[in-house]
Fold:
Amino acid sequence: MKILGVIPSRYASSRFPGKPLVNIKGKPMVQHVYERAIQAKRLSEVVVATDDQRIYDAVMGFGGKVIMTSESCENGTDRCREVIEKHLPEYDVIINIQGDEPYVHPEQIDKLCSLFENENVRLGTLAKQTHSADDILNPSRVKVVIDKSMDALYFSRSPIPFLRGKDNNEWGKHHIYYKHLGLYGYRKEELLKYNQLKPSALEKAEALEQLKWLENGHKMRVGITEHDSYAIDTPEDLDELLSREG
Structure:
């Protein structure tokens, strides 16, 4: 099984323009992600997929592999689809590695890859148990509920499940909550169908692209990891991350 890691990377972020190139300890963010991704043992190859010449040049500058993709790609998943459809069709599984998580852990990537050892798994992602009230109640932290087969039932920015009759600041003491981590894996055949899926009302309501799969009847297996992740969506997020490191 050949597994490709793709790092979608776009310059025109509405909340943080130029985010992939922001300097973190002397390196652009996209380089941090790339250098961690290539440490994953199960990936055969890692490429950055971008629609911006500045990002393309930066990746070439640090010796990474990069593919120029269309500006019309609607999100990271669609950019991964274009890579496998037009450039690297020989891969069996594609791992979508978020370009705004500079400290993604290689073991997280390998954990996600391992889900596809089960031939019945067509789509996959990761989650981490949390007891934190901030994780549970904060709409910036996406939650996932999982069935007994470890397939996702639903993703939401709202706290799910709602614990009736309990103080919401204490919910983490009474139930196991799962925080969703933004890594995705797809069998090639599934990914190539992505742009054929009908628009999803739930996807638009929550602004969560993974709901498009669920609402169209696809199952997504969830792997549980002990490693957390931290996405940088705004300059304030970056400041907070750097302050944590001292």
Remarks:
- The first strand starts at residue 3 and ends at 9.
- The chain has one domain: 3-125+180-197+213-244.
- The CA atoms of residues 83 and 98 lie 15 Å apart.
- Residues 3-125+180-197+213-244 form a domain with the Spore Coat Polysaccharide Biosynthesis Protein SpsA; Chain A fold (CATH 3.90.550.10).
